[in-house]
Amino acid sequence: MVCRCPSCRRVRYVFLCPDMRVWRVARSNMAATLTCGRAANEASSYLYVYGPDGLDPALLKLSAHIIVEPITYIFNLSRSSNDLPDVWKSVHVLPLLKGGDPSILDNYRPISKLSVLAKVLESLINTQLKGFLQNHNILSPVKSGFRAKHSTITAAVKVLDDIICDLHNKMSFAALFIDLSKAFETVDHCILFKRLRDIGLGTKAVDWFRNYLANRTQTVAVDGHISASLGVRGGVPQGSILGLVLFTIYINTIASVADNGKIHLYADDTVLYCSAPTLAQAYQSLQQSFNLLQATFIELRLVLNAGKTKVMQFTKSRTVPSSTTLAISTLDGKCVENVSSYKYLGLWIDEKLTFKVHIDKLVRKLRVKLGFYFRNKSCFTLQARRKLISATFLPVFDYGDVIYMHAASTTLHTLDTVYHGALRFIINAKSRTHHCRLYEVTGFSSLGLHRWFHWHIFIYKAISGDLPAILIC
Question: From CA 311, how far away is CA 90, in angstroms rounded?
């Protein structure tokens, strides 16, 4: 029931409590929820195309104080009846060309557009569901995706720390980077509902999620044309807020499968690794753990992509067996490719942990972009050039810099060269302008200071308990 608090006059609304043993009333300002930038901006971030409900997020923001009570009533009705409007369960899929031949469907990335109000409701439910998972300590500590205090950087730091510690102990190390084919689309609903019951959700909560996943449809929208709708029989909706946490719950138990090795998961990015006195023993333990993990994938109806699954070895030994001697294979007999570098969570990891591959790829990517900027610099004002570099260059330099900050100075110098070029673009300086002058005029600091600043923040988070427990202990 919708009511107003007599003290603050804010609207009270009821929404899904994760355990569903008690339907609790949560007090909040629904207008603030509707006007929060995240839900609205996500719904209109791709070419301003509306979702299946045809509602303009800007209209909802402007009229939030007027429509808050009707929307609250609809949300409460969805909770009490365990039902959602059909339009909230439909998706517009916009194919975005990633590159390559436009006639090849695999070269397109599907962008899902959902109804705006459906995402607002999902956000409310997601907040309670995550709180339930955290309060009851349900999620495995080796899962880093979509959790408070966790990020791709903390996940990569954990894996790399395990590798470095074992190498310092004169152990050999083998890591298997596992790729799943269409992981979110192959989630089995019956297994998912059982997992929801197993973690303690009540019957009403599971029934609501059952209706949320049932009878979903999707259409393809291209150049203003929309295809006929097609039913979705399985999986969790991509682009949704709840889909991510539901998938996390779905694969939560696979962390306990790795008997002789360690495992770390970030969404569907899984790395399995083992250490041993010799590389041959590490590969043997890795194969045993991989077999158990594959059996779990089969139980969960998840499909292993053997072609994109890679294995990498780390060792300080000067005599390394050939890749034909050491091999990892799938249950159906396919050999997993041995690689010398792999892109894990946006960071290229090489077998010597020099990060030269990662930095070289960053430099090549940024040089192409910087060349385009220089060729069109007459189109930008000074303020625009500053914002352009701040938005497109600095985040690339900053991502993962605490991980590769101790790379060789000659390797890091190539980053400085591109960075100084970007600063010259801002102030339209000559190529021989000294970097101290660039820092002085632009007000930007050096990349070395950036890295040390981010490292100090990382240490502060560790001291204050704002990092995952697996990194602090």
Answer: 39
Amino acid at 95: P
Q: What is the CA radius of gyration of the chain?
A: 25
Spatial CB neighbours of 452, under 8 Å, sequence gap ≥ 6: 405
Q: What is the DSSP letter of 188?
A: -
**Residue range 129-171, pLDDT digits in tens:** 999 998 998 988 888 878 888 899 999 999 999 999 999 988 9
Distances (CA, A) of 236 to 20, 246, 334: 21, 7, 29
Give the confidence band of 326 by pLDDT, cuts at 50, 70, 90: confident
Strand pairing partners for 263? 272
Whats the size of the chain, residue-wise? 473
C-alpha 290/C-alpha 176 separation (Å) is 8
Reduced to 3 states (helix: H, G, I; strand: E, B; else coil), residue 338 is strand
pLDDT digits (tens, 9 = 90+) for 379-418: 999 999 999 999 999 999 999 999 999 999 999 999 999 9
How far apart, in whole angstroms, are the C-alpha atoms of residue 370 and residue 431?
A: 14
Please enumerate in sequence order all residues whose Cβ is within 8 A of that of 278, keeping only pairs 6 or more positions apart, or say none: 172
- Measured distance between the N- and C-terminal CA atoms of the chain, rounded to whole angstroms: 46
Please name the residues in contact with 403: beta carbons below 8 A apart, sequence gap of 6 or more. 153, 156, 157, 160, 347, 355
Is the pTM above the cut of 0.85?
no
